[in-house]
Amino acid sequence: MKKVLIGLACTAMFGFFVTANPDTASARAKYFARLMERYGENIEEVGTQRCAICHAGANGANKKIRSAYAIALFDQIKEAGGDVNSMDDAIIDTALTAVEAVESDPNNEDGPTYGEILAEGNLPAPAPAEGDE
Fold it and tell me: What pLDDT does residue 20 have?
């Protein structure tokens, strides 16, 4: 009986830590909030696309597949001293500013930067469809 209770307690603790990890979702919500604050007035789609701005699947449900913009933004977050769970507004804002200068298509030198796309009131290209990555 003691082993069963210990096993149940361990299972409950594991479940709690797996489901109660606030950094996982809240960091990305912070990215979206900063993006919305910066571009929300100029780009109507920002509010409706939400997670799909950076992720594939219905409403951006597949967090494993990221758009080129999301990859470039994460690179800039790392450059600014952050990581995937960065909650620091200054790091996120620095990354959002820096990614504006990044070419949206590295194979096309004449293509627009992410900043030019956003200034025109458009969102960067979406993440590839699931299965196309």
Answer: 46
